[in-house]
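Appendix B. Worked example

We walk through a single record from start to finish. Start with the input: the chain for Dihydrolipoyl dehydrogenase, Zhongshania aliphaticivorans, length 478.
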Amino acid sequence: MSKYDVVVIGSGPAGYVAAIRAAQLGLKTACIEKARNKSDKLALGGTCLNVGCIPSKALLDSSYKYHEVKESYATHGIGTGDVTIDVPAMIERKDAVIAQMVGGIGGLFQANGVTSVEGTGKVLAGKKVEVTAADGSVSTLEAENIIIAAGSIPVAIPPAPVDQDIIVDSTGALEFQSIPGKLGVIGAGVIGLELGSVWSRLGSEVIVLEALESFLPAVDGQIAKEAAKVFKKQGLDIRLGARVTATKTSDGKVEVSYTHNDEEKTETFDKLIVCVGRKPMSSGLLSPDCGVNLDERGFIFVGDHCETDAAGIYAVGDIVRGPMLAHKGSEEGVMVAERIAGHKASMNYDCIPSVIYTHPEIAGVGKTEEQLKADGIAYKVGTFPFAAIGRAVAANDAVGMVKILAHEDTDRILGCHIIGASAADLVQQVVIAMEFGSSAEDIGLTVFGHPTLSEAVHEAALAVNGNAIHMPNRKKRK
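Next comes the structure step. The output line below is what the pipeline stores for this chain.
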């Protein structure tokens, strides 16, 4: 039986980062991974790298470049003639990006002395991990500490069973070899909007069916309202309150039945993407006597520092409470590794940014205006449009705004929400500010380069206190 200081189950962003950090701290570490790629080779990197964050961004970037050349270059005086898209080549490039990044993790494991173990891990009693290899052989690892980072899988819905041919999940939507003439998307969340955007840019007629009556309910309401207008203008047909009741495939198409505005309706699609959320991959992961407990939704129950109910066993990433975000899982992995090594590491869950990688991007951190109202917190607001930012106008990319929320009395920043070009990178400036307890005035007093998109953050912070320079300020209520 092999013995380790730390055994990590799962090599996604939470797992591989935890393993690397543990090894850096001098702990003998192994990382178990069961996934295999199209070539039947070990696929390090988890969902994010292989069938999630990275491949979807590769397609988002490819499709947006095509859209820009076709629709926007003429604005800059650039003539291109006929523009075509080679979908198989685009998918091949996406696969090459994945292969490069997977190889990078393997190299990092080797450089840091992490032992990579192929197979399916299961936590046993006594801090042991059973590993079942692809050929069915079973071995056991013993560890002083175990970090569970098994990740999550797409949620399935009975009315739309996935066949990965006509009805696909988010994984299948990354493998289309041609542009669907008419594409259905079930779910107007992050994944649905991103994947819908990819194929809409390439020419698909995209209809998004969302069961909820509100659009992006977790996003600040003002930003969500702006996003709905932008996506409608881009051609996405988003139908709220549309609940899918049945699907029927025939002749290479799928007929979707759904209720909308108290009416029974149908639509026929060439492809249908089901992306209604994800759930923890906890089935078969734990032996009944290992001491680790699950909540009613299948998440592993953990404390503030990701410790489970069993001493020496931790869980991080999508399989525990909190947002299912790669960067959240990675930082939990670092925190746990450092705590195992004796450091007093912690994590600020109030400063985790979230991003939707449509174009324009949507990003936020901290409280939304709706949450502040619900909590009875006195606040003030500053907004600034990209339409008043010279760099955005010059780039022909001036859609959207920056919104900053600060406490009415202390001026401390409580949240920032952005829709616009490079929102994911711009919001990070405010994440740093919030981490250090900054006020809106602190950002307002900071020198920002000109001309840059980040000036919108500066101006929004100034606007919080009625001091914006490049737009009229709201008159303060007496």
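Two observations about the output. The CA atoms of residues 94 and 100 lie 10 Å apart. DSSP finds twelve helices and 22 strands in the chain.
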